[in-house]
Structures are given as C-alpha cells and as structure tokens.
Amino acid sequence: MCGLDHHDDSLLEAMLENNLLFDSGVDGLYGRSGIFEDVIERFELLVRRLGAPDKATRIHFPPGMGRKTLEKSGYLKSFPHLAGGVHSFEGSDRDHAKLLGMLEAGEDWSDLQTPTDVFLTPAACYPLYPTVAQQGAVPDDGRLFELSSYCFRHEPSKDPARMQMFRMREFVRIGTPEQVCDFRESWLERGKTMIEGLGLPCHLDLASDPFFGRGGKMMAISQREQALKFELLIPVNSEETPTACLSFNYHQDHFGQTWGLQFEDGRTCHSACIGFGLERVALALFRHHGPDVEKWPAATRKLLWED
C-alpha cells in the first residue's frame, strides 16, 4: 500500500491538500478532519483495550492547570521555553477603549492582557500528582491511572508532527521502583507490538527531554546514562529523523518528593508514565498507508475498526 506522497511537497502540504488538516494561519495549530479524528478515536480504543487488563483508574483533566502547581512541579526550571500561560483582559472601560483604538490602528495590544492563575497543561500527567497526594497514603500495591488531555508546548514548526496543541494519552504508575519499572518494561513490549501490528516501521531508542540551557545538556546526558527515557520512533515527516510517537519515562522519586507521595510506612513513591502522542500516530498512519482509510492494509483496519 502506497503511503501519503510527499516527495515533492512537505507532509504538512500533503495533509492540507487532502483535507485531512486545515490551516489556521499559525504554525502548529491545525483543524482536523472527521476522518483524522476518527483515526485518533480508533487508536485510543486500541490503547484502552491493550491496557484494560491493568485496570487503571481513568481521569480526564482540562487542558489548563494551576500556575502554582506548574511552578512546584519544576517544569519551569527545565522547560521554560515550552511553557504557555493564559492571559486575560482585566482593565477598566477606559482601558477597553484604548484596546479598541489599538486594534483599529493595528497596534500591539498585548500589554493590556495580564497573567491569570492558569497555565496550559504541558503533559497529561502533571495535574495528577497533587491530586493523588491529596488522597493520602499510597497502598502497598501502588496506583495506576489512565489519563487523556490536550497539551501545549510552544515550539511552532512546519512539521505537523510537532504541533503546539496536541493530545496525549498516558498511563501513570505510582509505586515502588520495582513496580513502576516492571510496568514500563511491559509497555515497552506492548507498545512496539501494537505499532508493528498497525503496519508502521518503528524502533525503540534511548532518549532525553529537551531541557533548557547549558545545565540542560548535563541533565540530558544523565537522563540517557540512567536509561530514564525511551521513545518509540516512527518515520513521519522524514526517514532521516523519525518522530517519537510513544514515550516510556521513569521519573524515579521526583514527583514523589515534590508532592509528598508516600506509602503508609513513609517510603517515598516512584513513578513512571507511558505516553502516546495521538496526532503523531495518526500522522504516521496517513504517511505510510495513504489518505484513503478504506484502502489501508487489512491488518491495520482490523485492529482499528473491527476488533
């Protein structure tokens, strides 16, 4: 089966030409067709089926989270360049009149917006840890959650696999180091098998997060040396630089220490998360199988539409 032809044009242009994505005028923000959304919904159902035996507790958070929660999480120490805060107009009638005049004149009116207590959620799991902490001690067998959320990261790009607003589905395991590492290992196998079953080329690789600044380079080296992050890479926008579509992260006790996540005996909990980039997987499917889902390989269609 031929994939989505983008040898002469970029993948983004091919997606736009086939009315699978729609241009908003801002890089990394796109409308999505009903077909594109259906593929994502079907993939989410597949993930849920594979994760069902684990009996995770499902929680859905909004795409915004509290400013203080984000500050305490440490995200701004490592990724200040990706964070996005929500601003709003809180002025007087006179300020409103000034704003209208600036709009009419085509002037920059952003100074009339003030920061609110809301930040856009950078990863689906960030609001979870304080929520679990509020529920008291973690049982000896740990906790497991299934999450889904729109997320934001400020990295505008012509690569459609690097959207500014995108969705993540995650499984988060909280428990002992052995419990969370065993869970991550189980999904390293399950995730690769699932993607291969969809007829997509992929491979697992050690990875590191895009930490900010000079100190971030040392953090990235340490993360790789300790094998804290793996990614499942699929050629999406290019063969030379495949895209991370699934991630497998071991946080050690970072969130346990930050939020006071403990067992009854006072031991600090560790955590791990398995993340699925939903738009990225959908793009990979269109890239390799073509724009007409009716012509996708029978095995792929069976997994997504018939199981």
Automatic annotation (TrEMBL):
Q: Which InterPro entries match?
A: aa-tRNA-synth_II/BPL/LPL (IPR045864)
Protein name per Swiss-Prot or TrEMBL: Amino acid--[acyl-carrier-protein] ligase
Whether Ligase counts among this entry's keywords is yes
Species of provenance: Cohaesibacter celericrescens
Q: Where is the signal peptide?
A: none
Keyword vocabulary terms for this entry? Ligase
As one GO molecular function, the record gives: ligase activity
- Which CDD domains did the record assign? Gly_His_Pro_Ser_Thr_tRS_core (cd00670)
